[in-house]
Design goal:
The protein is of the alpha+beta class. It contains 15 helices and 29 strands. A nine-stranded mixed β-sheet has the order 6-12-13-21-18-17-16-14-15, with helices on both faces. A six-stranded mixed β-sheet has the order 25-24-26-27-28-29, sandwiched between helices. It has a three-stranded antiparallel β-sheet with strand order 1-2-3, with helices on one face. Strand 17 (about 365-375) and strand 18 form a beta hairpin. Helix 3 (about 115-135) crosses helix 11 (about 425-435). It is globular and about 85 Å long. The chain binds glycyl-adenosine-5'-phosphate (GAP).
């Protein structure tokens, strides 16, 4: 139940809408909104907010019941074994032209990868979908595109120059150097041959790539996009007329001199990050957004320490039980998991793991990883850290500039806290969508990449059923030319129709459009669905509109035209 409270700050009165909630058996008060300076104004605003909250709660509850029913089925206690090894996925990606080893004609260059046409299309689609849901569709997040090389003092302030390093040891058996996580000291085995590390070879290995700017000035390639957000925070906040709580997002290249790049794209030396730094006023810290009601495997610090197995739990329940400390953390963890799920990733392959105290990064007070069950085990897919006021304080100290902003509501200058930093590598997301899409169909005897059409590199392949009928070829070319204005489509005349279908199944093309004898009489075409092989006939005049809806998932395939299977 929500209620109005009056607070006196520096002698002035302010009204707030508060709510009592039971957490872990204790009643806790949470501020929902600021209501103004007069009682009348406050009562009017409170009525509006309560009405809005009740309405949206009803709609959200209905939607979430559905989501929850589905995740209950999808999230198993044990994930299924992956259908392909990481080495075979790398081979498949090379064979079909998704990703190549960089510098291959010179023997390859470890930790660097080049994306071919199909690969870059998927990568761009992942970034487009991320930007759409994290920036375009949100009122509280804006974007920036910072430089890759910036003032070297940024990296001294951030702590990277001193602390961004790995501990490396040389293996007694294979003599290769390997990185050892600090919490694994004394226990870790060589990641190449399983041998013991030679303790006397321990050495700090700096991960930042150094470069020279101009004649002789030492600088660095950025190892994360985050710092560019912190150093621009005040200008962006003021120019974009943001209000706390709010976020700034960025997608861009980062560079890390990894000692042992491995597992295809998983650990590389050059990759892209999609990051949000989410800022709050620490005095009004509760999250106003509804936490998506979904279930996932949890692996908290306590479970790890006590040797317990991960436990299936609703994210909201984990917050109530105190497994997750802050509602903001619960909100962002659920939002990020839902993003993958909505784009077709298998929820059964995800879990949330909390960092143990001794593995927390130097800037972080709490951190949860969204982990994925890769073919080589559970590994970090996305880090979601609470960075507190570490970064802005450091930049204030090193630059001598005041980075505080004026909070209109409490009429005071404050230094915001970064309550959450969802930080995701584009290439790791690429691996997830490839792995969860990859199927071998015994009946068709070929691979089918069952990827969400929003992410597939090619949206449709257009082919004439026969190549010798001039009229059919003409219509096919015209259909192709028209669709190409809006979608990534290909025109395919190579080999039999069956061969053309299987070639497109392998690269994930969700729809194949064929033009046949009937098309000449009826001005229509056939669309074939990749996953089911079902077909519908659609008028050429309606094709562009229907294809658009099919890609966005706005209509069911069987209802998109005259179904004839
Ligand atoms: N700003 C916070 C930060 O950079 P991080 O955990 O070091 O945190 C964030 O990196 C994400 O970047 C990871 O969750 C992962 O998706 C990706 N990432 C990190 N190192 C990577 C590497 N060597 N190769 C590919 N992706 C990497």
């Amino acid at each position: 139940m929500a209620f109005i409270v009056k607070k006196k700050i520096h002698g002035k009165e302010y009204y707030y809408l508060n709510e009592n909630k039971r957490v872990d058996g204790k009643v806790k008060t949470k501020t929902i909104a600021y209501l103004g300076k007069t009682k009348k104004q406050a009562e009017k605003k409170a009525k509006e907010i309560i009405k809005r909250l009740d309405g949206s709660k009803e709609i959200m509850d209905k939607k979430e019941e559905k989501i929850d029913e589905q995740t209950k089925k999808d999230v198993k206690s044990e994930p299924e074994p992956q259908k392909i090894s990481i080495e075979n996925l790398a081979t498949f990606c090379k064979r079909k032209g998704f990703v190549y080893q960089s510098g291959e004609i010179y023997g390859g260059y470890a930790g660097f990868w080049d994306f071919g046409h199909l690969g870059v299309e998927i990568k761009n689609n992942i970034k487009k979908e991320w930007w759409k849901s994290h920036v375009t569709e949100r009122e509280d997040v804006v974007g920036i595109d910072g430089s890759i090389i910036t003032h070297p003092q940024v990296w001294e302030a951030s702590g990277h120059v001193d602390s961004f390093s790995d501990l490396i040891f040389v293996c007694k058996k294979c003599k290769k150097p390997g990185k050892v996580d600090r919490d694994e000291l004394g226990k870790a085995k060589c990641e190449f041959c399983g041998g013991d590390y030679d303790e006397s070879t321990a050495k700090e290995f700096k991960l930042m790539f150094e470069t020279r700017v101009g004649e002789n000035s030492k600088s660095y390639l950025r190892p994360e996009t985050a710092q560019l957000i912190f150093i621009n925070f005040k200008s962006v906040y003021e120019n974009a007329r943001l209000k706390l709580p709010c976020g700034i997002a960025q997608i861009g290249k980062v560079f890390r001199n990894e000692i042992a790049p491995r597992d295809f794209l998983f650990r590389s030396r050059e990759f892209e990050q999609m990051e949000i730094e989410y800022f709050i006023n620490p005095r009004k810290s509760s999250c106003p957004y509804k936490i998506p009601n979904i279930e996932i495997l949890f692996y908290s610090e306590e479970m790890q320490k006590k040797g317990k197995e991960p436990e299936k739990m609703k994210i909201i329940e984990a917050l109530k039980k105190g497994v997750i400390k802050k509602d903001w953390h619960a909100y962002w963890l659920a939002t990020e998991f839902l993003w993958f799920k909505n784009l077709g990733a298998n929820p059964g392959n995800f879990r949330l793991r909390q960092h143990k105290k001794d593995e927390l990064a130097h800037y972080s007070t709490d951190c949860w990883d969204l982990e994925y069950h890769f073919p080589f085990g559970w590994k970090e897919l996305e880090g979601i850290a609470d960075r507190g006021d570490y970064d802005l304080l450091q930049h204030e100290k090193f630059s001598g500039k005041d980075l505080k902003i004026f909070d209109e509501e409490i009429k005071e200058k404050i230094l915001p806290h970064i309550v959450c930093e969802p930080s995701l590598g584009v290439e790791r997301a690429f691996l997830v969508f490839m792995l969860d899409s990859y199927f071998y169909d015994k009946e068709r005897k070929n691979i089918i990449l069952k990827m969400n059409p929003k992410l597939t590199p090619i949206k449709a392949a257009v082919f004439p059923i026969v190549k010798i009928n001039q009229k059919i070829v003409e219509i096919s070319r015209a259909v192709y030319e028209e669709l190409k204005k809006e979608f990534e489509v290909i025109y395919d005349v190579g080999g039999s129709v069956g061969r053309r279908y299987s070639r497109n199944d392998e690269i994930g093309t969700p729809f194949c459009i064929t033009i046949d004898e009937e098309s000449l009489k009826k001005d229509d075409i056939t669309i074939r669905d990749r996953n089911t092989k079902k077909q519908v006939r659609v008028k050429i005049s309606e094709l562009k509109n229907i294809l658009g809806k099919l890609i966005k998932g706005e209509i069911e395939f069987e209802k998109s035209g005259e179904f004839f299977n």
